Every structure is written in structure tokens, then in C-alpha cells.
Amino acid sequence: MSGITTHVLNSVTGKPGAGVRIDFSVLEGDTWRLVKSVRTNSDGRTDEMILKPEDTKVGQYELLFYVDEYFARQGMALPNPPFIEKVPVRFSVFDIKQHYHVPMLATAWSCATYRGS
Amino acid sequence: MNTELLKRRKFLAAGATLSAAAAIQARAAAASSGPVVLAQDATRQPAPAAPMPPGRLTFHGIDTYHGQTIGTLKVDVSMLEGGSYRLVKSFDTATNGHSDGSIFEGSTFKPGRYELVMHVGDYFAALGVKLPSPTFLSRVPLRFGIADARERYHIAVLFGPWSYAYYRGS
């Protein structure tokens, strides 16, 4: 499989991050163009791939995770502004035949991402 | 900040953690020799008119690919103003990936929304690490909010060519 997928995990509870808004953008010239805005399902994944194999091109992409909104909905008291708010992850697709799984592990005070599989 | 004040602050910070040990050492020294100058005596300097708050922003980037930050990492510091991030300053990390002192401290440290962009692609390229082109990670944005600039915020980052994590350290 190729294309781009993601997965949000709540590292406070160890459970999937459900209902997290993600804005997906592509770099065109010097400008990030919003491609679509999605929400994670109950498993912390998106129902459809972020970017399907046939639509994937070599280039720079951004996933913007609305982490603060998610933790606020969980009833967590956050500072103003929150330490971890909306988290951009910027990465390159360098070979369209490969799969790019880019997860987000988050708490209100930390986050991590990596190329997964 | 003047030099004396900086010395005083560093001394006080060290003293806060070492005071218990220092007191024990001072008592032991008093028992075995003559007059002892207690550590606290050295703090008898004119107090500043407006004490500097302890708030500051520091950074530590740890290269988990090599197990130590053997290169120099460039970091761009921006603040959100009117809907966009405006570059305030850039710095190169000093020994072991630390910022050379504070990025901001005292009255120069403001609450708000910050972005540190780490030049991770350039860092690994300079060290000769072979990676695909374009590299998976190149300029990595770390965004965070500062709610109370009187507090210490330490941005700790673990980074490699394929992953990174950051958190509020101490």
C-alpha cells in the first residue's frame, strides 16, 4: 500500500484519540494549500486515507492536529494558551510507491510523531 | 541584565538546591576549623529595585539517531502575531544541542504562542547521513503556548531523521 495515513493516540489514557480534527495541506510554491479537513473515528484513524495512492505526488505535506480541542472536550483543564495547541507535522513524500503512515501521540504537554507503517 | 545580577541569580538558584548540603558542610567545617563564611553571606548585595522574574525559555535538542547531538542545529524562533508567525530570532545550538543560555528571560519573555523551527534536514545533511531526497523531515515546526511567562519553560526535543517528540521539560 502507498499513500498517506495517520492515527491519533491519547498518551494520557492510552486510548485512541477519537473525534480529533485534522487539517491536511500540501505545499504549493511557498503556500500551504488546505486539501481537506477530517476527523478521526473511534479508533483514532480516519475512515478514508488522508491521501490515496493515485493522488499522491512527491512533495511536502502538512497534518495539523487539533490537540487542544480534543483534550478540552475530555474535560481537561488547559492553560490559556494551551502548551500543546494545534500541532503541525510537516513531512515529505519522496517515493510515491511507498506508504507514509504519520501518527500523532499526544498529551496536553507533549507530542510525538514518526514514520510508522 | 547586569553581570552582578546574573551572578546573583545563578548563585541563588544553585543555593536553593544546595543549601541543605551547604549547611551540613558548614557545620562540619565549623567544628574542625576557624571562622566559616556561610554561603548565604555572599548574597548580601544591594537588592535590585525590581527583582527579575524567574521566567525563561530554554531549548535542548537531542539527536537520537547518533545518541548525542554531535552537530549544530539551527533553530528559528517565531511568535504568533495577527494570525501569522513572525520570526523573532534564530540561534545555533551550543554544546550537546542546548540553547546557549536562555532564548528569552525576564522581561523579554512574553506570554503567547511560539514556534521553533528546527533545521533537521540541514543538521543530518551536514553530518553526512544518507537519506532520501527530499528528506522525510526537513524543517520541523514545534509550536507551543506560553500561558505564564513568570514560569520556566524548557522545550526538550528528541529528534531523528524519521521521528521527533517534544515536551515541556524542566
Question: In terms of topology, how is this protein built?
Answer:
The complex is a heterodimer of chains A (117) and B (170).
Chain A: E1 3-5, E2 8-10, E3 15-16, E4 21-28, E5 31-39, E6 59-66, H1 67-73, E7 86-93, E8 99-101, E9 104-106, E10 110-114
Parallel strand pairs in A: 1-8, 2-9
Antiparallel strand pairs in A: 2-3, 4-5, 4-6, 6-7, 9-10
Chain B: H1 3-32, E1 56-63, E2 74-81, E3 84-92, E4 104-105, E5 112-119, H2 120-126, E6 139-146, E7 152-159, E8 163-169
Parallel strand pairs in B: 1-7
Antiparallel strand pairs in B: 1-4, 2-3, 2-5, 5-6, 7-8
Could you walk me through the main structural features you see in this protein, from its secondary elements to its overall organization?
The complex is a heterodimer of chains A (117) and B (170). Chain A has one helix and ten strands; from the N terminus they run ββββββαββββ. Chain A has 117 residues and is mostly beta strands. In chain A, strand 2 (8-10) and strand 3 form a beta hairpin. Chain A starts with a strand and ends with a strand. The longest helix of chain B has 30 residues, at 3-32. Chain B has 170 residues and is an alpha+beta fold. In chain B, 25% of the residues are buried. The chains are: A mainly beta (117), B alpha+beta (170). Chain A binds chain B through residues 58-60, 79-88, 90-92, 94-95, 105, 107, 109-115, and chain B through 111-113, 132-141, 143-148, 162-168. Strand 10 (110-114) of chain A pairs antiparallel with strand 8 of chain B, so a sheet runs across the interface.
Total strand count of chain B, please?
Answer: 8
- Which residues of chain A sit in consecutive blocks of at least 5 with pLDDT less than 50? none
Number of helices of chain B: 2
SSE arrangement of chain B, N to C: HEEEEEHEEE
Q: Give the C-alpha Rg of chain B.
A: 21 Å
Shape estimate of chain B: globular
**Strands of the biggest beta sheet of chain B: in what spatial order?**
4-1-7-8
Q: Give the low-pLDDT segments of chain B.
A: 1-42
Order of helices and strands of chain A: EEEEEEHEEEE
Largest interface, with Cβ-Cβ < 8 Å?
Answer: A-B, 27 and 26 residues
Oligomeric state of shown chains:
heterodimer
Mean pLDDT over the residues of chain A: 97
How large a portion of the residues of chain A is in β-strands, by DSSP E? 35-45%
What percent of residues of chain B are in strands? 25-35%
Principal-axis shape of chain A equals: globular
Instruction: Provide the residue-averaged pLDDT of chain B.
Output: 81
Q: What structural category arises from helix and sheet content of chain A?
A: mainly beta
Q: How many angstroms does the end-to-end distance of chain B come to? A: 23 Å
